[in-house]
Amino acid sequence: MKNRQRFALTLRGGRPDRPPLFSEGIRRDVIRKWRKQGLGSRSLESLITVDRYEMIGPELDPVPYPVRWPADPQDLTDFKRRLDPFDKHRYPRNWLKKYRSLTDRDIVTFMEIHQGFFLAMGVGGWDSFERVIESLCTDPALVEAVLELFAEFSCRIAENVLQKCRVDAVYFSEPIGGSDRPLMSTEMYKRFVLRSYLRVIDTIKKSGVDTIVFLTYGNVRPLLKPIIEAGFNCLWCCESNVPEMDYRAIRRMFGPDLGLIGGIDLDCLREGKRSIDRELKKKLPVLLDGGNYIPLADGRIRTDVSFENYLYYREKLSELVIRG
Questions:
Q1: In whole angstroms, what is the distance from residue 200 CA to residue 167 CA?
Q2: Integer angstrom CA distances of residue 63 from 67, 80, 82, 89, 164
Q3: What distance lies between CA 304 and its chain's CA centroid?
Q4: What CA dihedral angle connects 212, 215, 218 and 223, to 10 degrees?
Q5: Cβ neighbours around 131 below 10 Å, total
Q6: Measured between alpha carbons, how far is 254 from 244 in angstroms, rounded to an integer?
């Protein structure tokens, strides 16, 4: 079965030959260390079963950035001018040829369409974070105006790319979760953020993309119900080692229609083979049996994971996924 066909069938609740096996995205510093631990001159892809995927998309940051807080009407005028979806500098050189070279091949393509609430609002540190959070209460109209400008920008980006290139999934990057709870209340998130996303989601669906991914971090459990109601149909949560975000619990709560990517605790790769065995045998059978699930470690692999442990994890993952 082809890679893209396997991906589409998995996240539509079908029964492919197996779910996709994606790479966690190994950074160069990790590969350099692993070469000394046994990888040598070989490519990692030659040793593991992996289906290729690519993250594509234009530059979403307005330049210069961010909006000053507190802002005034002139700031919003400048912000709107800088959010030009057709600015050639937002796209790689010869972007249409580059994107089509990816999308014409059997490669699953994810496109980022929104940076999430905090980056859209210009948060770059603690001071700007504090001012933006205060503005939710002191100047809600301003917050809504900024989010509407970014939503309009995202809609135009989506139309410009999705009408010209085939994309398998669109994702919103939303770093909204803390270690124990979201950084906004559910009601505020619905009022300000999700309401601004609805137009973008509608544009994506009209462009023919079926999979809309909520890519997030930490504990966002209180937000999941309104997120799904808004039109997101796939969750990809990273670095969220809390019981509330255990994918088995989420599957029991929200059923098999919500697609899931990731969910394998990255800590087990640091701890060793016994921990890897426990984690995979504990989670994979029930998640794979329910379908609509792509197994993957829940974060980027770092240098504290040994080459031996990673290779063992991928071998065991392939055994469970391919050979049942």
A1: 15
A2: 10, 11, 6, 10, 25
A3: 23
A4: -30
A5: 18
A6: 13
Are the C-beta atoms of 279 and 247 separated by less than 8 Å?
no
Burial 139-168 (b: 16+ CB within 10 A, else e): eeebbebbbebbbbbbbebbebbbeebebb
3-class DSSP assignment, residue 143: helix
pTM over 0.85, yes/no: yes
Query: What phi-psi label fits residue 5: left (phi over 0), alpha (psi between -120 and 50 degrees) or beta?
Result: alpha
Our CA angle for 290, 296, 301, nearest 5°, is 165
Q: Which residue has the tokens 């442990």?
A: 309
Task: At 55, give phi and psi (nearest 5°).
Answer: -95, 120
Q: Which residue has the tokens 């974070």?
A: 129
Select from 319, 302, 315, 294 the least CA-distant residue to 20: 294
Cis, peptide link before residue 64, omega less than 30° from 0: yes
Convert the pLDDT of each residue in 264-321 to its tens digit: 999 999 999 999 999 999 999 999 998 999 999 999 999 999 999 999 999 999 999 9
On whether the CB atoms of residues 244 and 276 are closer than 8 A, the answer is no
